[in-house]
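Morning - 1,3-dihydroxyacetonephosphate inputs below, output right after.
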Amino acid sequence: MKMRRPFIAANWKMNKTLSETREFIANFIPVVRDVSDIDIAIAPPFTLLRAAAEALKGTNILLSAQNVFYEEKGAYTGEISPLMVCDAGCKYVIIGHSERRQYFNETDLIVNRKIKAAKKAGLGVILCIGESLEEREAGKTFDVLLKQIEEGLNGVDLENLIIAYEPIWAIGTGKTATSEQAQEAHAYIRERLKILYGNRADESCIIYGGSVTPDNIDSLMACSDVDGALVGGASLKVDSFCRIVKFKKEK
Ligand code: 13P
């Protein structure tokens, strides 16, 4: 048995309306009500956070935002601060998703500022890291992960911090990393965290993201360093996300 508590999160990305969110949550709650040995989180778009928080009140499901800005308040049109995200009922925020790095030019320095601001506001952080296909094929996977860890976590402690390994080539492509590839990357991440933080890294939750489905969740979760999943496409339907949350545990 692993000593770390599994963490399974739904990243809805830019999907769902208010009525779809209410319907999903109403159908999801009864199925996972009895799940007490893992942490479950849902990350809807900003516009749905408050309604989702209302619908999730009193349940075992945590609310997460998908992004946050690093300033507390002020003239930053279109941005949302960590305080606002907390105020809307979030306990977590996803930071540094590859889609944000790719489409919105988020650098490791920006990611680092966002993590610091989020933690200061009392939010748990899900930090996403991962290599592109070109980087993997060029044998640079570990170099990329190391840079993202060292620069992203510069001056940050591990308290309330989850790392999501999301190889970019596996996101939304149906091409999951094999259990061996996931385990290899997760073991490397933990090894680097140990160098930076010592044995505290043994308690760190390192989750996998990239085409996680009901068909591959059991074998991913059987890997000794895979502590959970960050699920995109398969988290949009209650049935498939429920099956992922109820993955088969190793004996
Ligand atoms: P998919 O599960 O759709 O591949 O997305 C993964 C992801 O990016 C989760 O953050």
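Note: The pocket of 1,3-dihydroxyacetonephosphate is lined by residues 11, 97, 166, 171-172, 209-212, 230-234 (CB under 6 Å).

O.
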